[in-house]
Amino acid sequence: MRHQNSVFHDVLKQIPWGVFDRLVEEHGSDDLVRKFTTRQQLLSLLFGRFSGAVSLREIEAAMTSHRARLYHVGAKPPRRSTFADANRNRSPTPFCGLLEHMLGASTRGLRRKLGDAVRLIDSTSLRLAGVGSEWSRFSTNVCGAKAHIILDPDFGRPVYHAITKANVNDITAAQEMPIEAGVTYVFDLGYYDYAWWAKLDSEGCRLVTRFKKNTPLREARDLPLPAGTNVLSDRIGFLPARQGKSRKNPMQAAVREIVVKTKTGKLLRILSNDLDAPAQEIADLYKRRWLIELYFRLMKQTLKINRLLGRSENAVRIQVAVALIAFLLLNQLKKITQANQTFLELARLVRFNLMHRKDITRLKQNTRPPPLDSRQLALNLAIT
What we know:
The chain is of the alpha+beta class and 384 residues long. 39% of the residues lie in helices and 17% in strands. It has helices spanning 7-12, 17-26, 38-51, 56-65, 67-70, 80-89, 93-106, 170-174, 194-202, 279-287, 290-301, 313-337, 343-353, 374-383, and strands at residues 118-128, 143-152, 157-165, 184-186, 206-210, 218-222, 231-238, 255-261, 267-272.
């Protein structure tokens, strides 16, 4: 009988192992390591993400039960204490480097006008507690971290991520993010900083965000409103000349204020430095910001990014990077299968069939042969 790989084996084929091995060698991650290598750690973490395991003990037990089939992918069941030590002490650099390479490769070859590229920026909190979480303490009884993400909504994948303590302001993390000239950045009030806006504007980027309630628009002039939209007003003006009594506002260029009414009756004052695009287009761009909230919910509910196996700084950075790698692998699998199913449905199918020997393009199909009828069964018994 022809050998059939397990679903886990076929999913892992998408990882550029040559790149990962080179990163491990460059950063000396396996120096003085006897058994549980960095590759073994990555395989164990990915097994945990795909299987839905939420503890080291679950991963150890599940991998032990599938020891024979894991042999073909080069994985071994980890000892729980060894696994915990590796998550706590091993550098996250090889994992983050692999993620960066896969992020770059996932959009390679895709052609798109530069001005059509959209980037959504936001962060999500990761609650931490217990031994190892002291690095993230920001009050007497509370520890936590933040995952800062730039998401490409058109391709449904992140293009950048960073991990900080929970008490680090979003704008502080954003100032370290790379800027792509000419693209559209959409973000909320957590990134309200005139100097950063001026930097984006100088790079030719279009920014779409919200006004604070108490921010006036100086020297405003009204623009004609299009018919049949929910836009209530469209004005061009200038932000306050000064941020304080002695600080000049670096964002001196004209901006645009578009007021829209949501379905709940709330009024939104949308801000943009695009003075030419239709008002409805700007309003629709800001509405797309909700996609990154859906992405965070997907990561937390499907890949359990909020259930961390370790709480040290290294462990958190490694696990977030591996969760994003798992997301990219499932995204690529969705493209390979070309099935009309949601990401959540595909993640469930992979979880249920992870160690089964099935064709990854036919996860929904039952690959077992149909049951024999009584006549065929009698014939088989007679032959034997």
